[in-house]
Amino acid sequence: MEKVIFEYHSQPTSYVPAADPAAVNKHIPAEFLGAEEVTLPQTCEQDVIRHFTALSKLNYSVDNGFYPLGSCTMKYNPKVNETVADFDGLAGIHPYSPEECVQGALKIIYELESFLKEVSGFSGMTLQPAAGAHGEITGILLIKAYHQKNQPEQKRNVILVPDTAHGTNPATAALAGYQVRQVKSDNQGDIDLEDLQQNLGLDVAALMLTNPNTLGLFEKNILEISHLVHKNGALLYGDGANFNALLGLVKPAELGFDVMHFNLHKTFSTPHGGGGPGAGAVGTSKDLIPFLPVPQVIKKGKNYFWEYRQANSIGKVRSFYGNFLIAVRAYAYFLALGAEGIAKVGRQAVLNANYLMHKLAKFYPVPYHRTCMHEFVMTPHQAWSVSTLDIAKRIIDYGFHPPTIYFPLIVHEAMMIEPTETETKETMDTFIQALEQLAAEAVQNPELLKKAPLTSPVGRIDEARAGRQLILKYEKGRDTLLT
Ligand SMILES: Cc1ncc(COP(=O)(O)O)c(C=O)c1O
Fold this sequence. Notes:
Number of domains: 3
Order of helices and strands: HHHHHHEHEHEHEHEEHEEEHEHEEHHH
CATH topology of the largest domain: Aspartate Aminotransferase, domain 2
CATH architecture of the largest domain: 3-Layer(aba) Sandwich
Bound molecules: pyridoxal-5'-phosphate
Helix content: 25-40%
Low-confidence stretches: none
CATH class of the largest domain: Alpha Beta
Distance between the termini: 14 Å
């Protein structure tokens, strides 16, 4: 096990020239240095470098191997995106630069918004939100502003959310001040239309819908759903986290969605945050454009400008114009694939998922016997004495990242698998072989699965305790989570 950095104590040698912290401090005004001395690890440069390099090797990433985390769309991010985002003229610009000095950057924002409008069918777009969930709250605030402007006398204080929804949907609705009412799914995995009709009253502001839903199924009744919602005076919010399944096949605006967020890190191959910057672009119908966050980039003649004049705007939802270099990566991805490549993304994502589902269904039950979209759900056999958690942990020993587990909540012991369009048949076949072998182990040697993972730096941890007893700071001698 790698030590923590505070446990290293080695004297620097004069053969590794290092910066002298005291010399650096001399240049910092005293008031910024703080009154208390900070306890820093006392060790030498080479141990610091080796420590962090060792830690980085313990991480699993999509650059290490297959990462079939359903709903999260861990597609491989092509390195050309990074090359472009690293161009001096893009990485080095300051957000306060005058418009005339950053015409190229404004053009990228304007064009990326146009590309997103083109593939989604929406008329309005903003790149400002910094994540999918941030896009959700932006979209729901747009809906709120729309109702307040158009029907001020009508109290619409409820948002409908299906029982398959991602947790961020009800959380978003509640954060925006709405009551959340759940809508049931039927035995096909679609929204139960009767239940929807019963829940659709004049108090409903919107239905938040993910299509394909989190079971990986295309909502067959989408046109009827959008008709029912609109007839009631409510709006249809689209959670676009699964948009890669539709890319090039269907435009969500044509299905009746009024507003939808796009997780650029899922569909458009930008890095997944990991706490870092992301982007959750939001597309809207024409009716919602007046409420979009400011500023918007507009084009007059050949020139681009920031437009702040928008009387009904919900305001700003993030500093400056969102995470610009993430937008650059998505822009590079669009250009590299071109219209022809983009048009094939959805087809390949759906084909890969169906290939995997078809092969794995021989060993693991699949709850819905339908063609899936870009992901699918399967479970362990009821007769097995191992749980989904045991299978997920054992997958680590085969060198893969586990799939999403115990989500969506309506499938008991769910494992949710999403290969994405970037994986090759060879990689998927290796995964299938591993899961076939694992299914045999589940019958012959369940105890082995219960002890897994056996090959990772950290074994089975007490996840409930880790969640409830958050100790985020190193305390000497306290090896809490592993005991
Ligand atoms: C269906 C769905 N909706 C919303 C989100 C939230 O997106 P983000 O993680 O970008 O905030 C996710 C993320 O996994 C998701 O899968």
